[in-house]
Amino acid sequence: MGFWNGVTPQAVANTSDGGFKEFKVGDNEAYVKSIIEKESESGNPMLVIIFANDEGAEIRHYIVDGEYKLSKLKQFYIACGIPFGSNDVQSWIGKRCIVVCKPGKPYNDKVYNQVSFLRPKDGPIGHHPSTPGEQRNSAAPKSSNTYQGSQAEQFAKEVSDDGFDDDIPF
After folding, report:
1. Which among 13, 22, 100, 165 is most buried, taking Cβ atoms within 10 Å?
2. Any residues with CB less than 8 A from the CB of 168 and at least 6 apart, and which?
């Protein structure tokens, strides 16, 4: 019989779901589980940051050496409260943040979620510790360009606060 040995309705019902958990679309509180330095398919150096949540789901975030490397690193540093320029990747393990996910591209007839952007778990967007020992302070005064909300809200606020008075009606 081979394959079917031990397969009973009770055995199947009592088994776990196999660990197939996924980050949901939207905000997911997570921590840095591991960081891998490797090469992208096109041969560029990259970091693969594996985030995990408390329910056992994992998702990978890629920072590839190229046009967006520094801006993605800055977003990661701010979200996790890591001092700018830190390259001690082992010290990043366990850092917590919010991983905002969106639906990815279809793969084998399934759509897997992917990281859209990262933001701090607490405190306003844009706050970053200036020294390694400084802690986030949610009571810190908010500047005119720091706030909480979606990227669309952030863009709308930045555009409305640009000081430009446009009288063109369209």
Report:
1. 100
2. none
Computed from CA positions of residues 117, 122, 125, 126, in that sequence, does the dihedral angle turn out positive or negative?
negative
Q: Which domain holds residue 142?
A: 19-160
Residue 165, domain member (yes or no): no
The structural domain count of the chain equals: 1
CATH of the domain at 134: 2.40.50
Q: Tell me whether residue 56 is in a domain.
A: yes
Residue type at 169?
A: P
Q: What angle do CA 132, 74, 32 make, to 5 degrees?
A: 70
The helix or strand, by DSSP H or E, that contains position 104, with its residue range, turns out to be strand 96-107
Output b/e per residue, 19-52; b: 16+ Cβ within 10 A: eeeebeeeebebbbeeeeeeeeeeeeebbebbbb
The predicted-structure confidence for 24-68, as pLDDT tens digits, reads as follows 999 999 999 999 999 999 999 999 999 999 998 999 999 999 999
* 111 is a domain residue: yes
Q: What is the pLDDT of residues 65-118, one digit of tens each?
A: 999 999 999 999 999 999 998 999 999 999 999 999 999 988 888 888 999 999
Q: Which two tokens stand for residue 62?
A: 């890629």
Count CB-CB contacts under 10 A for residue 101.
21
pTM of the predicted protein model: 0.63
